[in-house]
């Protein structure tokens, strides 16, 4: 699609208010919400402040009191921000666009649950000596919390609640946990519009860091180090921000008034190290007083536009001026490399800009390192970024005023930037730099005739410029537009230009170039594939498979046992589950933990089983694809990494020894943080697996962490496929890992009464489509696929195993605990996948069903299959892998994708075991008991998540002449 993408609606929930114009005004006045924590005793924490949301009444706006009781604060913030954004855009799903054509992409953060809600689990799980007692956990602690606690700890819940409140049913995904994943949510919505998969997109993020458990996690991960070192640093906040994106012509046709065009975005992997080392400016400061020359903005100046620049100049940054490495001590000289790579992102975002940026939305958040890197990056980016450094530019740093909202930080900065652009500041540069390895830069351009558009309520309070600043003068005093460089398009009549990719300077080989997203104009030629474009899209193939699961620790063993119909479920041995309602599961047996740690030294201290399982599966996939050796690093440096996970793991054994003092007595933070040095954090960040894989193998492209619950494993494969088709990468590693076989995971699901309690026959407990089924069985496992474009695979001589033909995603917008009984969400995603693959229902040869063994899901999926495939549904095999593996939650979709490829390679459909008495309402051919030989060219694989997220993949046999 060539129609420009514009921002038409803003929705904010922040510590400085919820009206975008009011928030901008308060930021310009230099106001800050940062204050000493009142919700908990900050003793023991390096950071002495937080930024809480104190005034929000969600019930009058959302109305559904019953649903609100199920929601955590991050979900409430998200739902409110989403509704405000839709209202601001005057967009009503079903009236302006079909619900299935409105995409929903969001980012969520870690540790969203507050201590009082988990305190009973801590207090009543401790034995007499204070150690964690799993029997007490099951018999006493678990029953002291509400079953709805499970709804609050899953990272995908905020997005699911938005879909329920707003009846959204379109493409979707949930990302986690840092600023870079908030940028990914924006870019995912942008591409859904560009590629014709959606007509509008609601994109944004939410996070809750203003509570004790979040502070513990952040301090253990090194986020607060600068407070100890130089007396200033990040202030955690909470809130949410969502934006409405539309194509400009369609938006104006329905009467919308765009804020700005989303003109360009650059996403790259630039790892900002957690070990703190002061940049030169910070080292020159007075550490005793806590003052620092690198603090941004200066305490004597407001956060808004100023006449005196606080940004670095070449004279103040000798490392930037000369190009040499930073002084010894700054990450061992790595600081200059970081600045160069960030500068490459800035340069990429400005590569096709006709007019220079008149505003900068800075990522500076109090940590001097981030300001230092950003300042040098702007200088290194060259003349295109120079206007953002000038005294005429409007500069805003929202984080010091609002606190760092992490997963919501990028959407907030874009929202503030959009307001400034519509005021007449010209293009705005928005940086998204922060913790985690994913960094991004955006450019916002004025929408057509934006200056003539009436001011809406969102900007009514923000139209006055800050004291001492002449916005009109600033906009006219900027340097003249630079001449187009060789290869660039000349400006169009409306002031836009054709997007042209330029090689980015200062990149350290073999570091990948930034992933570049350009805004095409009416005169541009878009090379991205679209649903209606006649341009042939790039074909995507599978060249590597890796799998660890309840039936085997490698793919050959797993496949042999699956084909033989062996059950992987049985009594749990990983911990004593006898105190729980459910004590059976599908464990990975004899998993070589220590060997995996030897393969991956970076994971030597990791305790989260999903991380270790995922590492083993990723290694096998890369080995099969011939990409695990040192000679493959140059290829992987330009590869994308898409990883699916679901639940944060809390190690209760770390905190129960403190229970004798009372976990809510205001002293938990100090006592937990004073533990032995070198101990791994009590909570595993959800991007941990992606980071270890990426750093071990040198995966330099985007690292996306998807936490869309049971749909995550399928979604990461689908999204990686979309990126390859569109030319955003040539090679990708995509997969997922999960393990719910821990007290919190198993206990939470047992409270929901979703699990089988067939302890007498544990091997037969998971019974998809059987009349006697009574719930699913939780399991653990991991699977990864190496995906490549067909041309790339052929060029390097790779063995091609299968082809990815289609991908579809949807939301069913029904209830958080139950699927829509009509199967609406499943129908939508299967039809989207068929359309994407260009297939009719008759083109499907085998269905790999979601098949959980729960009473409602199996009937719903059967109804959906019959609606989508019609009479053909009765003529093809429909099998359920979970009858043998149990439900692997986030990993299920990836494991079943590998099974789909194996079905095509071997011409064999695995059986559905334990199907003894067919349910009359489940009347398809489920391949009961024994595997079946088939001549299949296509397999459709379904994954439907708790909370209503759905994904469907369609695989095809390897193109002729490419089979191994």
Automatic annotation (TrEMBL):
Name used for this protein in its record: 3-oxoacyl-[acyl-carrier-protein] synthase, KASII
SUPFAM superfamilies reported in the protein's UniProt record: Thiolase-like
Pfam families assigned to the protein according to its UniProt record, in alphabetical order: ketoacyl-synt (PF00109), Ketoacyl-synt_C (PF02801)
Gene Ontology biological process terms in this record: fatty acid biosynthetic process
Keyword vocabulary terms for this entry: Transferase
Comp. bias intervals (Low complexity): 457-493
Molecular-function GO terms, alphabetical: 3-oxoacyl-[acyl-carrier-protein] synthase activity
Family matches, as CDD domains: KAS_I_II
GO cellular component, one term: cytosol
Top-rank lineage group of the source organism: Bacteria
Keyword presence, Repeat: no
Biological source species: Candidatus Ozemobacter sibiricus
Sequence segments annotated as region (Disordered): 280-333, 457-506
């Amino acid at each position: 699609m060539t129609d420009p993408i514009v921002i038409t609606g803003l929705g904010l929930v922040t510590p400085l208010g919820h009206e975008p114009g009011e928030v901008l005004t308060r930021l310009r006045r230099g106001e800050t919400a940062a204050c000493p924590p009142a919700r908990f005793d900050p003793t023991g924490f390096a950071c002495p402040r937080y930024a809480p949301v104190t005034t929000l009444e969600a019930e009058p706006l959302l109305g559904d009191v019953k649903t609100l009781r199920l929601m955590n604060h991050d979900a409430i913030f998200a739902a409110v921000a989403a509704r405000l954004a839709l209202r601001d855009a005057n967009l009503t799903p079903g009236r302006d666009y079909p619900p299935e054509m409105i995409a929903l992409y969001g980012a969520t953060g870690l540790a969203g649950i507050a201590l009082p809600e988990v305190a009973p689990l801590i207090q009543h799980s401790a034995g007499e000596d204070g150690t964690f007692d799993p029997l007490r956990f099951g018999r006493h602690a678990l029953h002291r919390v509400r079953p709805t606690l499970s709804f609050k700890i899953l990272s995908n819940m905020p997005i699911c609640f938005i879909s329920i409140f707003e009846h959204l049913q379109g493409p979707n995904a949930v990302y986690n946990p840092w600023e870079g994943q908030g940028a990914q949510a924006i870019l995912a919505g942008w591409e859904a519009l560009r590629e014709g998969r959606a007509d509008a997109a609601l994109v944004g993020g939410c996070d809750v860091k203003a509570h004790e458990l979040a502070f513990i996690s952040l301090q253990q991960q090194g986020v607060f180090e600068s407070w100890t070192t130089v007396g200033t640093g990040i202030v955690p906040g909470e809130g949410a921000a969502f934006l409405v994106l539309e194509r400009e012509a369609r938006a104006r046709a329905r009467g919308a008034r765009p804020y700005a065009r989303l003109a360009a975005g650059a996403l790259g992997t630039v790892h900002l190290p957690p070990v703190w080392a002061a940049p030169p400016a910070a080292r020159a400061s007075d550490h005793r007083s806590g003052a620092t020359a690198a603090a941004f903005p200066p305490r004597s100046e407001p956060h808004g536009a100023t006449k005196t620049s606080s940004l670095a100049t070449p004279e103040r940054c000798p490392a930037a001026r000369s190009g040499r490495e930073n002084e010894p001590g700054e990450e061992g000289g790595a600081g200059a490399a970081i600045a160069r790579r960030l500068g490459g992102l800035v340069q990429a975002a400005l590569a096709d800009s006709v007019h220079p940026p008149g505003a900068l939305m800075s990522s500076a958040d109090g940590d001097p390192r981030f300001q230092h890197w950003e300042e040098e990056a702007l200088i290194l980016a060259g003349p295109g970024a120079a206007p953002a450094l000038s005294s005429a530019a409007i500069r805003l740093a929202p984080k010091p005023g609002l606190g760092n909202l992490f997963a919501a930080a990028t959407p907030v900065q874009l929202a503030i930037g959009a307001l400034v652009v519509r005021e007449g500041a010209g293009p705005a540069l928005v940086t998204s730099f922060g913790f985690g390895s994913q960094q991004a830069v955006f450019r916002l351009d004025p929408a057509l005739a934006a200056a003539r558009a009436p001011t809406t309520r969102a900007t009514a309070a923000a139209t006055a410029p800050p004291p001492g600043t002449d916005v009109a003068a600033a906009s006219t005093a900027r340097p003249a537009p630079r001449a187009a460089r060789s290869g660039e398009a000349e400006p169009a009549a409306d002031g836009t230009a054709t997007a042209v990719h330029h090689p980015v300077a200062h990149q350290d080989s073999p570091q990948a170039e930034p992933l570049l997203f350009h805004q095409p104009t009416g005169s541009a030629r878009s090379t991205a594939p679209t649903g209606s474009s006649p341009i042939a899209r790039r074909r995507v193939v599978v060249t590597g498979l890796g799998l660890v699961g309840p039936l085997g620790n490698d793919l050959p063993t797993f496949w042999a046992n699956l084909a033989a119909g062996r059950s992987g479920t049985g009594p749990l041995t990983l911990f004593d589950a006898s105190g729980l309602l459910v004590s059976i599961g599908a464990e990975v047996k004899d998993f070589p933990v220590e060997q995996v740690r030897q393969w991956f030294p970076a994971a030597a201290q990791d305790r989260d089983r999903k991380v270790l399982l995922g590492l083993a599966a990723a290694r096998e996939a890369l080995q099969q694809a011939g990409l695990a050796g040192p000679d493959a690093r140059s290829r992987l440096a330009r590869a994308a990494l898409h990883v699916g996970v679901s639940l944060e793991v809390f190690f209760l054994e770390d905190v129960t020894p403190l229970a004798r003092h009372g976990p809510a007595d205001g002293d938990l933070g100090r006592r937990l943080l004073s533990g032995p040095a070198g101990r791994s954090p009590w909570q595993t960040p959800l991007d941990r697996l992606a980071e270890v894989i990426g750093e071990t193998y040198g995966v330099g492209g985007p690292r996306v962490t998807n936490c869309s619950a049971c749909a995550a494993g399928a979604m990461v494969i689908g999204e990686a496929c979309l990126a390859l088709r569109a030319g955003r990468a040539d090679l990708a590693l995509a997969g997922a890992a999960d393990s719910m076989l821990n007290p919190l995971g198993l206990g939470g699901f047992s409270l929901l009464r979703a699990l089988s309690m067939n302890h007498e026959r544990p091997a037969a407990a998971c019974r998809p489509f059987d009349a006697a089924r009574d719930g699913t069985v939780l399991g653990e496992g991991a699977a990864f696929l190496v995906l490549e474009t067909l041309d790339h695979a052929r060029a390097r001589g790779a063995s091609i195993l299968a082809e990815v033909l289609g991908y579809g995603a949807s939301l069913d917008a029904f209830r958080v605990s139950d699927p829509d009984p009509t199967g609406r969400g499943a129908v939508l995603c299967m039809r989207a996948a068929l359309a994407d693959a260009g297939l009719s229902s008759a083109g499907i040869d085998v269905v790999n069903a979601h098949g959980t063994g729960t009473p409602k899901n199996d009937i719903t999926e059967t109804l959906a299959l019959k609606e989508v495939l019609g009479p053909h549904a009765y003529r093809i095999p429909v099998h359920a892998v979970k009858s043998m593996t149990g439900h692997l939650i986030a990993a299920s979709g990836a494991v079943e994708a590998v099974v789909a490829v194996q079905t095509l390679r071997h011409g064999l459909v695995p059986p559905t075991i334990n199907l003894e008495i067919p349910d009359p309402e489940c009347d398809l051919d489920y391949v009961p008991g024994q595997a079946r030989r088939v001549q299949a060219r296509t397999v459709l694989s379904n994954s439907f998540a708790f909370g209503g997220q759905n994904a469907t993949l369609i695989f095809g046999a390897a193109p002729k002449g490419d089979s191994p």
